[in-house]
Amino acid sequence: MEEKKDIKSITLPQLTEELTALGEKPFRARQIYRWIHVKLAEGFESMTDLSGQLREKCIQTFLYTALEPVKIQESKIDGTRKFLFRLPDGNTVESVWMKYKHGNSVCISSQVGCRMGCRFCASTIGGLERSLLPSEMLEQVYAIQRITGERVSNVVVMGIGEPLDNYENLLTFLRILTDENGLHISQRNVTVSTCGIVPRMRQLADEKLQITLALSLHGTTDEKRRRLMPIAEKYSIDQLMQACAYYFEQTGRRITFEYSLVGGVNDTEEDAGQLAQLARPLACHVNLIPVNPVRERDYVSSTGARVQAFKSRLEKARVNVTVRREMGRDIDGACGQLRRNME
Fold this sequence. Notes:
Blueprint: E1 5-6, H1 12-21, H2 26-37, H3 52-61, E2 62-63, E3 68-74, E4 81-86, E5 92-100, E6 103-108, E7 111-113, E8 128-131, H4 134-148, E9 154-157, H5 167-178, E10 190-194, H6 198-207, E11 212-216, H7 222-228, H8 237-251, E12 256-261, H9 269-279, E13 285-290, H10 304-316, E14 320-323, H11 337-342
Parallel strand pairs: 1-2, 6-9, 9-10, 10-11, 11-12, 12-13, 13-14
Antiparallel strand pairs: 3-4, 4-5, 5-6, 7-8
């Protein structure tokens, strides 16, 4: 028997082709696509303006991915909500909903687990289980919008997993998420984070999308980066900076450097000076992150005074810098923590 196609993972032109092959008129594809990606229907049964016969045909032909919320935690501090979703195969992933003045932001996962092994991150403990399908990435956004009843205006692919290690599925996800026939979230309101897979960064640059690329830098020398991130064994800072320059050249989009401040490891005056030297030529934005303590790791956050001194040093060097506002620390806010605690 032919394997069913995952309808939420296919673009509108592909869906039109599929339905035409089933003997349906092309306008039906647009109708169904709208139910999936605009009205966020939970299944074919909800598509009330389709005939019973067509709904049945769709149930027989396509898979319809929906995620089940297993646990929802809400921060008493800032209203941030963290979701643990069960996937159709029983695996779980995390997503976070954050409310800002400029709109609602959702941080989603791109894999179940992660094989990148960054030393301060809970997501990598236990390694990689599998990559997520485009439907499973989209459904994190859709399910949160259904549950909260509020529109999501910004999406950050920065939860569990390395997005560029799931490259093709990520691209399909980005195309459907930003498609004018779907939720139509502006590409400029989408951020994709990477720990620095250089060939994929260059490949993404060639797509000429208008998304923001955020590089998890976390160290200003190869030696320091290697202590924190195994990927640094493969690609040097010099190679990374060349890839960043290429991305900027191809897209005109400024790169963001994500820099987790780990007490006594990468938060000195000297580190700040070296970071300024890397960021300034690329006109990068630097996002400083006081690292969330993870119980399986022995890294600690930098002190508040150290964070401020680091920020001031960058500002003096005329680098655009912000300190990430800590959201949801009282609800296992760091990537991978909630999933670990449920195991």
